[in-house]
């Protein structure tokens, strides 16, 4: 069902893409496209909330941009608070008066996990506040099972999409122009 939603909304794309990690791929998932259609965003958020319900979550937080809407929808179904972290001068932070209490049970959600970098940054922020990160959830896990957050990781769909280091990218070697559809600048 999730893959069909991604295809129907144009969220699953083909071409030559530079991922937020700096790696390259011939396939890209732009989950913002599925959130153009609130009825699909609600389905995805509700399904992820069902997976995370067992962790007794009090607050859901997502990294900007991919986790902002997802956090809101998942939190609504869990009857929890919704926050997001965003970059300020390249550093992920809680802003806009957002806070978490010491010991608060928090779920970190992200639209797509490839290397898990943004999620790890959010987890570090939460640890500084003394929050209890109980789980991580994503719409798509494209890590190939390689990511470990130190807490349970739930996803709605596992996609094994090709990922290349820039120096080994066959698309670059073919001279195919790359686009960077994500929201984060390269490191």
Strand content: 25-35%
Q: Can you name the CATH architecture?
A: 3-Layer(aba) Sandwich
Q: What structural category characterises the helix and strand content?
A: alpha/beta
What general form does the structure show? globular
How much helicity do the residues have?
A: 25-40%
- Span from first to last CA? 35 Å
Helix count equals: 5
Compact overview of the structure:
Orotate binds at residues 114, 142. The protein is α/β, with parallel strands linked by helices.
Task: Describe the overall structure.
- By secondary structure, the chain is an alpha/beta fold.
- The mean pLDDT is 92.
- It has helices at 2-9, 38-52, 68-78, 117-129, 170-173; strands at 12-18, 24-29, 59-63, 81-88, 91-94, 105-113, 132-141, 153-158.
- α2 packs across α3.
- The chain contains five helices and eight strands.
- The longest helix has 15 residues, at 38-52.
- 27% of the residues lie in helices and 29% in strands.
- 5-phospho-alpha-D-ribose 1-diphosphate binds at residues 110-118.
């Amino acid at each position: 069902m999730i893959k069909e939603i991604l295809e129907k909304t144009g969220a699953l794309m083909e071409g030559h893409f530079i991922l937020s990690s700096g790696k390259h791929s011939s396939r890209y998932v732009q989950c913002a496209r599925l959130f153009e259609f609130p009825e699909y965003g609600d389905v995805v958020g509700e399904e992820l909330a069902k997976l995370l319900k067992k962790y007794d979550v009090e607050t859901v937080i997502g990294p900007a941009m991919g986790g902002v809407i997802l956090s809101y929808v998942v939190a609504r179904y869990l009857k929890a608070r919704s926050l997001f972290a965003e970059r300020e001068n390249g550093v992920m932070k809680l802003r806009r008066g957002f806070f978490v209490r010491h010991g608060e049970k928090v779920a970190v959600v992200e639209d797509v996990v490839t290397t898990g970098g943004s999620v790890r940054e959010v987890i570090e922020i939460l640890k500084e506040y003394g929050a209890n990160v109980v789980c991580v959830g994503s719409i798509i896990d494209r890590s190939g099972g390689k990511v470990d957050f130190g807490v349970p990781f739930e996803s709605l769909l596992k996609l094994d999409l090709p990922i290349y280091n820039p120096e080994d990218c066959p698309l670059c070697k073919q001279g195919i122009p790359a686009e960077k559809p994500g929201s984060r600048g390269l490191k």
